[in-house]
Amino acid sequence: MSGAGTVGRVFGYARVSSEDQARGTSLQDQQDAISAYAKARGLKVTRFYVEAESAVYERIEKREQIQLLLKEARKGDLVVCDKLDRWSRDPEFTYGSIRRLLEAGVSFYAVGDRCDPSTRDGDTMLGVRVLVAREEHKRIKERTVGTRRLLRDRGYYIDGLAPIGYVRPPRKGVSRLEHNVLIVDADGAAIVREMYRMCIRGAAIGTILDHLTKTYRHRGWDKKLVNKTLRHRIYLGETKDTRGVWIKGMHEPLIDADVFARAQAALDSRRLVGAAPQAGSRTKDWLLREIGRCGRCGARLGASYGGGFYTGAKNYTYYYRCHRACPGSHYMQVKHFDPLVADMTLARLVELRDELGRGPEPQKPAKTVDFVAERVRLQKKRERFLEAFSDAGMTKAELVASLAKVDEARTRLESKAAQQARPSPLENAGLRREALLRIENIKTIWKRADRQVQRAALHELAHAVRIERDRDPVVEWRSAEEIAGDERL
Length: 489
Hints:
Blueprint: E1 10-16, H1 19-22, H2 26-40, E2 47-52, H3 64-72, E3 78-81, H4 84-87, H5 91-103, E4 107-110, H6 120-153, E5 166-167, E6 183-184, H7 186-200, H8 205-215, H9 223-231, E7 238-240, E8 246-248, H10 257-273, E9 292-294, E10 301-306, E11 317-322, E12 332-333, H11 334-358, H12 371-390, H13 396-421, H14 429-445, H15 451-461, E13 462-467, E14 474-477, H16 480-486
Parallel strand pairs: 1-2, 1-3, 3-4, 9-13
Antiparallel strand pairs: 5-6, 7-8, 10-11, 11-12, 13-14
Helix pairs in contact: 5-6, 7-10, 10-13, 11-14, 12-13, 14-16
């Protein structure tokens, strides 16, 4: 190192690798060592650059203090750190940054290592330290990856930011292990449950997005986030292990398997419907636009137009039609089927009002299902797929698709188990009263409501409407129990 008389400013650099260490004594110990070194040579530290951040290459862009120091240092300055591994654990960055300082006329000294790279011995020591650091960096990375794999396989959440509805525990007073256990965020959890409730009641992704954007403006929303939230098994209290298999996680679920299964069924049914009608669409006032199905094959219904090509749109005839062109399901007039279903809906509202008013009726014993045996069967099936993948008997894409089907079957199974274990919502007077109030409100506004409102109400009341030419519509109504169960979400 240059003599004390030639030194301009003295900059000290101290670093720890985590906020936990930053609250301890390590940073202060480093600064004390740097100050003692400067004082012994009649110098005073001009400024300390201190930070708590990992020193591997992947985090170099986050180390703001060292970046500021490298920009600030000028010819004649002295940079002092406690040890070389406090400067950096990345070998290339260590060697390159120190060489650039020396070439710029800046002196460098590592107190604990007694390393002055401007001397021949110091340069040799720096080279050796860089080689040792490279090997240590490899070991740290291997150890980190191994630890992450172990935590993932035990159900801890290590995937970065917590999804909406959860937060990570505050670092203060919490171990690193506990920091990987998600805790419920009450406000976010309420939003998630509201999204599932809207989905089950028939709202399309776009409708849910509009509601969220208007109601919770402080959050960033898009269709991808809404769809991911409604499809994410994390809300069942599960996490993915290193094989890509969903397993029971350490965190608390936000919804049960029954609600999740109903949401998946609702999403899948709307995927068959196609895009929602646009504001200027001719189909925006069609009652069965998003719920109509072919009476023969069950496929979604499209739109077709006839007449009016020369006399104007007001003379068009509008038709529902099966995309598969089934006989009897082609060119079914909208003006015929919409009024029929509207009248059937009013009659159904009266039936529901009476059912909800009477309360629960004696239920027939449900068919016994051996849920334990079924879970074992699905687990064995999952293991067979994993073994086939390990033996190169199937591609990764095939594995993902196969495991997704197993997960869907497991969701349906857990939904049945939850339904059987839980008493009927009709037995709950409060849920029945709330459902009855909602039915009465729909009945009151039905006749004067516009088609969009009626269509939304129909989605709450029915799963699908099957139509076929020269036959009456067949409506797959939701039961009073299902509708009362919505109030429990």
